[in-house]
Amino acid sequence: MRVTRSEAAEVLTLTFHQLATNALKYGAISAPAGGLRVSWSTFKKHDRTWLTLSWIEMEAPSRGPTTRRDFGTDLLEGRIPYELSGTGKVVIGAGGAHFRLEFPSKDGEASWRPMRQPHPWC
Prior knowledge:
Blueprint: E1 2-3, H1 6-25, E2 35-45, E3 48-58, H2 71-84, E4 87-93, E5 96-104, E6 112-113
Antiparallel strand pairs: 1-6, 2-3, 3-5, 4-5
């Protein structure tokens, strides 16, 4: 996917930075056997095209249950979905963090579009 709306690109950069930082400190990237699956998909909702970002960690070190909301949770479930007019949800499970972000294209203007050919490093 190629993000074409600058506001969406900025907010998605914050999203990936927050997720990667936490995965490196506490999650799957901090463990030798850890893994990560990131995927994108589109779907129709209310006659509009929406984009879904899914971040799933696997084999992260065990953590105790978290009950407090921190900056990262507020960012991923509050500010980022607000900025994109979408929804975001983080769940910390036995294998690591699971995050899902959904947001629509803005006012009929594509905020993303499929890339014609993947980059050589993809």
